[in-house]
Amino acid sequence: MKSKMQAAFVEAFGKPLVLKEVDIPTPGTGQVLVKTEACGVCHTDLHAANGDWPLKPTLPFIPGHEGIGIVTAIGTGVTAVKEGDRVGVPWLYSACGHCEYCLAAHEPVCREAQFGGYTKNGGFADYILADPNYVAHIPAHLAARDAAPLICAGITSYKGIKETQARPGEWVVISGVGGLGHLGIQYAKAMGLHVCAVDIDDGKLAHAKRLGADVMVNAKDEDPIAAVKKATGGGAHGVLITAPSLGAFKQGVGMTRKHGTCVLVGLPPGEFPTPLFDVVANCITIKGSFVGNRRDMAEALAFAADGKVKADIELQPLSAINDVFHRLAHGDVPSRVVLEFTSH
Ligand code: NAD
Ligand code: ZN
Ligand code: ZN
């Protein structure tokens, strides 16, 4: 086996990533080494590289938490996976397994959770070290490139829709039809929901329609709260905000039906004002949702294995990462870019 690999590093926040040749890591006790086949580029990677959030990653680091590949080496004591398995190395890289949150399957909020491509090096590299207890197990007939967006964008939008508790036949709004949202529309339709898609880009909305959304609203052209209320007869039972834009959050609360739930998953830095009277008097729930647990992961992947959900992907090489980030920041990525790694 060769000893060097290519990886893209964030060396300074807000600066272009630096491609470097570094040593391939060796799996220690309880770790596995994954040879990357594909890795999706999530808007979170952009937040990470810009140092957008209060808890910043330690520099330098390798982003990427939608990495899919083959286990090529295992450390001592590993029994959960074996060499040759196809796995994903997700945002929830590891957790303690013992705390009150882990015991309740709320492992993404474990105090000791590690995050792929953030507190641990991620998938913008030829090889990734992973914790075998937390890798995603990729169904046999799902290609790596198709599986990549599902292990973050897929699980997050699927879990977020579940968290709205909207029931079949009810309405959900998917606000933001990018990486997360284009999958969210498909999950929601597969779950028997009526879907109203909201974005600020007509191209994204045309795509939402092709994916089965029942109503499309351009938040730039019309009052999105009034439009959603009209289309849904008083507001959506569930609202999922994926847009990395603060304005979309306040609008999302306004689109929520009485006794409905507005789930926040987009993570733009900052805060948004909450109209207290409306939230209280209409008994609205505002809820955060952070990726999902391992069971959610298996379910999210199963929808794709059953042919009910398919990510729309644009393939790029790792060397294009800075251009991809630039386009993502400007809303110029149609759905999801997946970095493809060629065998060498
Ligand atoms: P993306 O860039 O692919 O998609 C964002 C979409 O939002 C685009 O289609 C854009 O046109 C649209 N948009 C922008 N402003 C809008 C507005 N005002 N109203 C409606 N739509 C608007 O991003 P992504 O990869 O889908 O990620 C979205 C956000 O979700 C990011 O902030 C990311 O960090 C976050 N995220 C959160 C979790 C979690 O666990 N909570 C997981 C993954 C990603
Ligand atoms: Zn992500
Ligand atoms: Zn824990």
TrEMBL record:
It comes from the Bacteria. Its cofactor is Zn(2+). Keywords: Metal-binding, NAD, Oxidoreductase, Zinc. The keyword Metal-binding applies. Pfam families: ADH_N (PF08240), ADH_zinc_N (PF00107). GO terms for molecular function: alcohol dehydrogenase (NAD+) activity; zinc ion binding. InterPro entries: ADH-like_C, ADH-like_N, ADH_Zn_CS, ER, GroES-like_sf, NAD(P)-bd_dom_sf. Residues 14-339 form the Enoyl reductase (ER) domain. The keyword Ligase does not apply. Its EC number is 1.1.1.1. PROSITE patterns: ADH_ZINC. Belongs to the zinc-containing alcohol dehydrogenase family. PANTHER family: ALCOHOL DEHYDROGENASE 1-RELATED, VACUOLAR PROTEIN SORTING-ASSOCIATED PROTEIN 11. This is alcohol dehydrogenase. It comes from Caballeronia sordidicola.
